[in-house]
Every structure is written in structure tokens, then in C-alpha cells.
Design brief:
Helices cover 40% and strands 20% of the residues. With 417 residues, the protein is α/β, with parallel strands linked by helices. It starts with a helix and ends with a helix.
Amino acid sequence: RATNAAIERYIAAESVDPILAQRITTKTLASWATSLYRDVDGPLDAVIIGSPNGGVTHLATAMGVPFLSQHFLVSFQDATPADDAAAYQAHGADLAQRIQRRNRELAVINHYDPLHDRFLIKHVNHLRLKLLSMPDHYQSFIYRVLPPGGRILFTDCRYAWPMYFIDEQQWFQVGGLGGVPPRDFIAGEHPEIAALQAREGQADPPGNWALKGRAAFEMPESEWGAMPPLHSRTQLFARENAYDFTAIEGPHPAYFSRLAFRVWRRLFEAAGVEPQGILLETFTQVAPLAARRAGLLPLWLPWNCTDSLAFLREMREEFEAIPGLREKPVLWLPLPNFTATFDMAPWEAWLDALGGFDVRPMGMRQQRYPTDARALYATRQAVIDWVAAHPAPVPIEATVPVETVLDEMRTLRIERR
């Protein structure tokens, strides 16, 4: 309890003062995104734009190209009871209106997940801002690094979720990716959700987090789904400026992780480097430079729930198809999300999914999973230490061309059929 109280104070201190909502602009968001590549000089072969996830990060790293995100998360200071969906929505709508007065080219999704983010939403209100058009800073950056004939790749994750329409380009999402079907968050029929609410006495009657009197429509999911206007406007920008354009379309964030894993496997083959092991990441626990500096094949898991566990079990076949990989370590980066949900995969299940492999948890203690505060810093340090002790760099000049990515996309498309 003392640890949780300390984490709660930290969250409150690190979240954004609501008074700053009116100071957020598309220009400042795009300027921050491009500033990450201020030292990058052209000419490059490609630039990636679109919806973000760990797989996209590893694609960009394998190709040696920048990634410009469509999405920006802002967590505002806000104390709301965990099960009060209406209050959370009202508070978020006020913040969204203040942002959108100056930024009509931003869609705003107020993301309320009283299951997986239960620990957080008592203290913060999550707004995810999505670009609807190509900002000037993105255009200027592309002109600087990408010559005519270069390729713009658009990561178009088609993962959908039911959302409530609140106002023009403003939506409210209840729940998020995990082991619970999307509609169960608002249908009031999931027994575990009803039991959770009944235990805490917050919902009357317990069983749903719906907004009364409103209907929810399928939309691109808040965290992972690409908002459609940016796709078409990026394609138009490419055509007008003599760039090639390719959309990387996937039905689920895990698609991009599988694609990135295969692209990295091709990179190792082309570079003549034998992988030292697997880098198994979860949600925000991502270490792309570790893959390159220590020769690790990266696989990113969207969350720590049963659906991501099922994805890992699928990928095990691909691990075993790589000669000698079974004898190499799996550096596992568990997620310290401080909420043990009923759809969370237990520690033993992750180890069982990789039975026969040398699994090495980085920075988190089994007995405190997933509430180990030490993992907030110890995971990063454990990865740094392992990389320093096992240097096997993939040369920085070793990158995969766009055609390799397109080849693997075609293979995945055929497999899905």
C-alpha cells in the first residue's frame, strides 16, 4: 500500500495541469515529433508516418528511417471515481473543447479504461490527440530528408473499437485492448466486470460503464487505430511532391509486431549476423536500440493480457524455425501497470508459453508482478547492463530496403487468406 501511495503521488505530480490545455497546438506537437530527428540528414530512402506501436518502432529502426506519429497522448490531472464514466467523460469533454478551439485539425479521443487503467484514471484524464492532416513541420521535415522518388510509408492500423460520438471530431472510448471483447465494457453482461464494480460499490446496478442514452459506433481504436483522413491526405501530399506512397495496413497492432520480427530476421540474414537472442517487450517497455547494439530479434507485445499471450504462443513457431535460437536467451520486459486484472496473463503463463527457452525477466520481481515499482527504472537498467556485457552490434549502416518490408507484407497477406 505504501508503494501504491507513492506511485499515486508520482502520477499526480507528473500529469499535466488542466490549465495548459489551451496552450496545446498542432504546431507544438509536430515540432516535438520532428525534433527527435533534428540530427538526421538526407537523402533517405523512406519516411514512416501514421499510427504508432512497438512493431512500427522496430520497423523504422530496421530500415534506419524516421517515424512521425499521428497520435499524441496527454494525461491531465483529474480526480474521478474509477467507475464514474459520465463524470470522466464530462471532464474530458471540457479539456477537449479547450484544445479544439485552436486546433480543428485534431481529433480528440477521451480514453477511459476502468479495467486496465484503473490505477491511473482515479488521478488522470487521458486525451489522445490525432492529426487529421499533414502538419507544416512534417512537410518541411520530409522536404529536407526525402528526395523526390523516395517513399512515404503510412502505418494504417485498422483495429476498431466502439466509441461514443461527443462532438465534431471528439469521441469517448470505454475500455481498451486486452482479454475482454470490446462491447463487453459497455454491454453490462460480463460477470467479472460486474463483480469488480460490486466489490467496490461504485456502480448501481453494477455491470457496465456505458454512457446512458447514447449509442456507440465502431471507430479506429484510440491507442492503435489510424484516423482515416491523414491516410488520404498523406497520399495526396506524396502524389503532389513526386514521392512514392505505400500503406502498411494491418487489422491489429500485433500484425505490425509480427511484420517487424520478420523484417529483423531478414536484416540479420543480410548482414551475416547471428542473433544473440530475443528481446520480448510489453507495451511501453520498448528498447529498439538494444536490438541493434546486442543483436537481438525484437518482438513487441501490445499488453500483458491473455490476447497478447496467445500472440506470443503463435510466434513461438517462428522462434523455433530459426536455427540455434532456442539455445539463446529471451530477455523479457514485463509491464509494471500496477493493476492486476482478471484478463491479465499470470507470470507462470508467460514462462509456460516459452517453455524450453532461457527466459530472463528484466528488472521485475515475480512476487510483485505487475505492481513492482522498482521495474519502472530497474528494467531499463537491466537491459543497459545486459547489452553492455554482451555487445554484438548490428552495424548501423546495415538496414533493410523498402522492398524487403513490402515482400514480408505480401507474405503476411497471403498467409491471412
